[in-house]
Amino acid sequence: MRDLVIGIDASTTAIKAVAMRQDGMEVAQTRATYPLSSPAPGHFEQDAEHWWTALLEALSALTRVVDPARFAGLSIAHQRETFTLIDAAGKPLIPAILWLDERARPQVARLSEELGRDAIREWSGKPPDPTPALYALAWLKEHRCDLLRSVHAIVDVHAFLVHRLTGELVTSTASADPLGIFSPVTGNWHPKLVQAAGLTEDQLPRLVAPGELCGTLTRETAGLTGLPEALPIFAGAGDGQAAGLGMGVTEPGKAYLSLGSGVVSGMFSDRYVTSDAYRTLTAPIPSGFMLETVLRSGMQLADWAVRTLNAGSAAELEALAKTVPPGAEGMMVLPYWAGVMNPYWDEAARGVIIGAALHHKPAHIFRATLEGIAFEQAIATAAMEKSCGVKATGFVAAGGGTNCRLLLDIMATVLDRPLSVSPVNEAAALGGGMLAATGAGWFASASEAGLAMRVEAAETIYPVAELRHFYRKKVAIYRDIYPATRDLHRRLLND
User: Fold this and answer.
1) Which of 228, 281, 337, 371 has the fewest beta carbons under 10 Å from its own?
2) Could you say which DSSP state residue 112 is in?
C-alpha cells in the first residue's frame, strides 16, 4: 500500500527528507549536510555535486527505516535563486552561485538603468537586488561570456536534482520564478530578462506547474537509494513558497512568518501586484501569488549578539533580557547587519545601535535586537498590506526563532496580531510533501492538500494589550532611524 509521500527540503546547508502520511504527520526524517564556501568577499558558492550526494545519503537512510514500497511519490522544496550551469551530461561547469552571493551589485545597477527599474519589477515581480540569479548571470555574461554561450542549461536546485533523479531537464514554475528571468503573469520564461541574462530559451529547463509529474526515478538512482524504480517525481517549489503552503497560507488574509536565519513573511494574493514593499512570487497552488518580505539578518543576528556579547547561551541571555523593561530603557537596534531588501533595497545599509548609555548591559542589547526585528516586521507588514489592500488576520510562525518566547511575545504585540506557532520543524518539506500528495492523486488540488495535511498550531501567542500603545510609539521612532542614517551608510561604504 502506497500510503506515504516524501517531501525534500534542499536548504542552504542540508538535504532533509521527510516521509509523511496523508494527514501530514511525519513518519521519519533523515538529513545530510554540505558546506558552502566564500572564495572572495561577497561571493558564496557550493559544489552542486554535494547536493546530489547529500540527497542520495538522505534517501538511502530513509529507505532503511521505512519500507520503500509504501512511497507514492516525491517532491522537492529548495533554496531559491541558487543556480549552476551544466553540460549535456548534467555535469556542473561552475560552482553553484548562491542566493547569498553579492558579486553582481554592479550588474544590478547597470540592468536597472538599461531596462528600467520599474520594468524589471513589473516583469519579474521583484525589485532589482543581487538575490535573483538574473544579475549573477549578467555577471557571468561579462566575465565568462564564452562559458555562458556554450552551456547546455542553467538549472536551479530543483532542476538539477530532478534531472539527476529522472534524466528529464524540467523544473517547476514556482522554482523558476525566483531566478528573476521568469514572468509570474504568463507562467513562462520572460524573453527580455532571458536575453539580459545572456541566455537563450533553449538553455532553459522545461516548465511544469507545482504538483505535476516531472518524470520517474531511473533504475540507476533507484539502486543507489533503495527507492522503487519509476517512483513518480512531482514538481515542487522554492522553500519560501513551499513553507507557506505547509503552514496553510493558501487564501487572502492568511500570512506566515518564518523566523529563521533571515525573517521571511509571506501573504497570499489572488491577484498580481508588485511593489518595493515586497517581492511577488508564483504560489505553489494552481493560481495566485505569494507576497514576501525578507529581513536578511533575522535569527542570525540574535546568534551574533550571543557570540559577540559573550554572555552565555541564547537561553541564558533571553532570560536576562526578560528582566529588561520593554523599550530596553531607551536603546534601539536597526537590524541591517546584512543590508536591507524591502522596502529600501539598499545594499549599503548596515546595523545601528542607538540610544546606548553606560547603564546598558548585554541583556539590553539582546532585547533591543529582538524588538528591532519586530519593529522592522511591523513596518514591512504595514507596507505590504497597504499595497495589496488586504490585512492579515494573524500569522502562522515557524522556524528556530519560535524557540525564543520573548521574541514571540514582542512580535505578537508589535504586530498587534496573534501568532499561531506551527509545531512543524520542516514546513518547507511539508509543503513539498503536499505537492507530492497532490501529484499522487490523494487530493484534487494543492490547496486541498494544504488543508488536509496541515498540522494544527501547538500554541497561539496573543498581543499584550497594555503594551500596544507603547510599542506603536516606539515603531514611529524606529521608522526614522534608517532615513536619518542612510547617507552615512553610503559614505562609510565608499570611504
Assistant:
1) 228
2) I
Q: What is the pLDDT at residue 45?
A: 96
CA 425 to mean position of chain CA atoms: 15
Q: Helix (H, G, I), strand (E, B), or coil: what is residue 77?
A: strand
Domains and CATH numbers, the chain: 4-241 (3.30.420.40), 248-421+464-495 (3.30.420.40)
- Cell numbers found for residue 194: 532571458
Q: Cα dihedral sign for 346, 176, 187, 254?
A: negative
Kindly provide the residue ranges of all beta strands, DSSP E only, lying in 34-78, ordered along the sequence: 45-46, 71-78
Radius of gyration of the chain (CA): 22
Cβ atoms 286, 235 nearer than 8 A? no
What one-character DSSP code corresponds to residue 14?
E
How many other CB atoms are found less than 10 A from the CB of residue 177? 32
The answer on pLDDT for 98 being more than 80 is yes
- Residues 47-87: tens digit of each pLDDT: 999 999 999 999 999 999 999 999 999 999 999 999 999 99
For residue 343, say if its preceding peptide bond is cis, omega within 30 degrees of 0.
yes
Helical (H) or strand (E) element with 451:
helix 446-452
Separation of alpha carbons 482 and 487, rounded Å: 9
Cα distances (angstroms) measured from residue 236 to each of 412, 430, 488:
31, 11, 43
**What is the chain's length?**
495
Say how far residue 162 (Cα) sits from the centre of its chain: 20
What is the spatial distance between Cα 245 and Cα 242, in angstroms, rounded to a whole number?
Answer: 5
String of DSSP letters for 482-495: HHHHHHHHHHHHH-
- Outline where DSSP puts E strands in 329-457: 332-334, 352-354, 394-398, 419-421
pLDDT at 83: 98
Q: pLDDT, tens digit, for every residue of 332-384? A: 999 999 889 999 998 889 999 999 999 999 999 999 999 999 999 999 999 99
CB 269 within 8 A of CB 388: yes
pTM of the model: 0.91
For 319, the grid coordinates are 532570560
Q: How many CA atoms lie within 13 A of 180 on its CB side?
A: 28
Q: Residue 26 half-sphere exposure, CB side, CA atoms within 13 Å?
A: 20
How far from chain centre, in Å, is Cα 337? 18
- Compute the distance between CA of residue 316 and CA of residue 241 in angstroms, rounded to an integer: 34
Q: How far apart are CA 219 and CA 228, in angstroms?
A: 8
Residue 103 phi/psi, 5° resolution? -65, -25
3-state secondary structure of 181: coil
Three-class secondary structure of residue 343 per DSSP:
coil
d(CA 407, CA 131): 27
CA separation for the pair 236, 242 (Å, rounded): 8
